[in-house]
Write a structure and sequence with these properties.
By secondary structure, the chain is of the alpha+beta class. The protein has three domains: 6-72 and 122-147, Ribosomal Protein S5, domain 2; 76-116, no CATH class; 150-286, no CATH class. The chain is built from nine helices and six strands. The protein has helices spanning 45-55, 80-96, 105-111, 121-175, 178-193, 201-214, 218-235, 242-262, 266-286; strands at residues 6-13, 17-26, 31-36, 59-69, 76-78, 115-117. The strands form two sheets. A four-stranded mixed beta sheet has the order 1-2-4-3. A two-stranded antiparallel sheet has the order 5-6. A hairpin with a 3-residue loop joins strand 1 (6-13) and strand 2. It is elongated and about 110 Å long. The protein starts with 5 loop residues before the first strand and ends with a helix. The relative contact order is 0.14.
Length: 290
Amino acid sequence: MKSMTGFGYAEGMGELGFYQVYLKSVNHRFLEINLRLPRELLGWEEKINAALRKVASRGKLELRVDFEPREEAFAIEVNTALAQAYLEALKKLGTALSLSFEPRLELLLQIGEFIHLKKGESVWGKEWDSFFPIFEAAMANFLAYREIEGEKLREDLWTQLEELERLVQEIEREAGKIREYYREKLSQKIREAMPQTKIDELVLAQELIFYVDRSDINEEVVRLKAHISRARKVLVSKDLVGRELEFILQEMHREINTIGSKSSGVLLSSLVLDMKTTLEKMWEQAHNVE
């Protein structure tokens, strides 16, 4: 079991500079990847996306790469002609709009790319081979973090599942007392309404059948037990189980609601409330399982 919460970091020197790779994730219904790359590394975006999709199937991932180029590895190229063209265009715009215009270098840098690294695509293609082991180390640390967090989730979910099973057993014991509960309740009502009348056992039995049948929760309990059994298998599985676990909890919620609607008596209602509370705790943890 893996958590969708994760963090990984790695750093190292490539041929063209020093890299720091940060990879983190939080829970999300689907897989969403957000890359924060320096301009020089944008050509690697497709490769990085493909690699991340191999290590994560769900979660909101954010990858940030900081890059410090080696001075001796790069030459800076300045496109003076392009800068001059932009400057002339700004002067004409100022004249046309009757606006005063004072040339400033920072203004030119905001509207055009006149300064860039003088390196071809082929060089960055070779640099990928230097960068990938650093990136791979960050992904390995990221996965290790997810597995550690996943084990914590498994332990907590197992504890809550055992508590849920205990509550189901108590519900089952109390459900066996429903017939006697309604028999006493109906007899008391008859005695209060007609104290001088002898209770007709046949009529009482017919009424009991009606109430007991309406309050029977045996089918719901059986299905709930089956869901608990399936959840145990899911929790020990090595596969990606997040979606299946959420489905099982959804089915448990349905059965518990039905039991609650059929329940009578303070103790049964209290047990149903405890089951809902326990299931809610499981939901909170399951939302973070990949």
